[in-house]
Design goal:
Layout lengths: L4 H10 L26 E5 L2 E4 L4 E4 L2 H4 L8 H13 L9 H13 L5 E5 L2 H16 L3 E5 L6 H4 L10 H4 L2 E3 L5 H10 L4 E6 L11 H11 L3 E5 L11 H6 L5 E4 L10 E5 L1 H4 L15 H16 L2 H22 L6 E6 L2 E6 L7 H14 L2 E2 L3 E3 L6 H23 L3 H4 L13
Helix pairs in contact: 3-12, 4-12, 8-9, 13-15, 14-15
Amino acid sequence: MRSFAKSQAFLARSQQVIPLGSQTFSKSRTQYPYGVSPFFITHAKGSRVWDLDGNEYIDFVSSLASITLGYQDPDVTNAVRQQLDESGVIFSLPHPLETEVAELICEMVPCAEMVRFGKNGSDATAGAIRVARAFTSRDRVAVCGYHGWQDWYIGSTARNRGVPQAVRDLTHAFKYNDLDSLDQALRAHPGQFAAVILEPMNTTAPAPGFLEGVKALAHQHGALLIFDETITGFRYANGGAQALFGVTPDLATFGKGLANGYPVSAVAGRRDVMMMMEEVFFSFTFGGEALSLAAAKATLTKLKNSPVTQTLTAHGQRIMTGLKSTIERYHLQDVFSTSGHPTWSFLNISDARGATAFEIKTLWMQEMHERGILSVGTHNVNFAHSEADITALLDAYENILPMIGEVLSQGRLAQALRCEPLVPLFKVR
């Protein structure tokens, strides 16, 4: 049985100086059951990570889907090392890399005619909303999916403490694959919406005509359409979900896999809209930081020259097909299901057989960690994952899922857990 003693001791130390012991909510103790989980990773290579106790894992979190090529990809690492050794990190004027990476994005992404950089996905979505508001001279925003920590979005979720009510009132959520819910929101405040922003896909594929319908409704009401491609960009296809589904938004935001884990994000879109960036204030001291841009240039170049997204899709399809087969073979459809795109798929867990989804997920995570698989319920495939890694994941499912089904049917879940179950948190997808 694996030990997590060092992780737990370091968590106690960390929580003395960092709320939740982590800079990122999705990496914190809220997501991992205490006693059966690692809390700190010391190093990573390819598809593997090692925790503070020395335990090795095949990582299907891929740093919240920001790792597309694999940890320490040699092409990216070499580009960063060369930039550091020969040129430097940040300068008193723009570095040519800013233009070079912007040109690559414009070449690859259908909507991209101009580009501005940030550091996080939240920077990019907030920048896109500010530009849309300035361009349309309107304030309200319709949202669907997750769009970051900034006030304009997070105020519309249950995690809204600290966000003024006046800001919260300007954001209106609508349902994915439900054009009527968007139409109702837009009609309730005619002439007041600056933008409709959504993740073009997360857990569910777009119904035929849905994305086209969202674009038509947005434009009918004088609003801009923004695709939040923080995850889907450079993962679903080289041009993002907009290229895959053939629907071009006015603006799009990118982050995560843009630089294979280095901190850079982007707002891209129509030239006339993006020119408003000269009027609004969207500016960062580190917006043109050169190491991350060198990583982005190397990442985008590799995406163009190697079958990255095709390989991610093939590996992910094997995961989804194998997982679905295991669920059906052991008659576990009332407990488990799978959804999403092959490159970013989900194991869905339901309340079932007298247990809550969070209790079941806790047991599932306990057993996955014991078998050397790191996952929080998603399969964020990267280019370094091998066929053997996919086999190991499917073998773990083949062992764990029927065991969980048996435990649930016998009412023994509490006895099977070696920890307290996870508790529900706010949900955005």
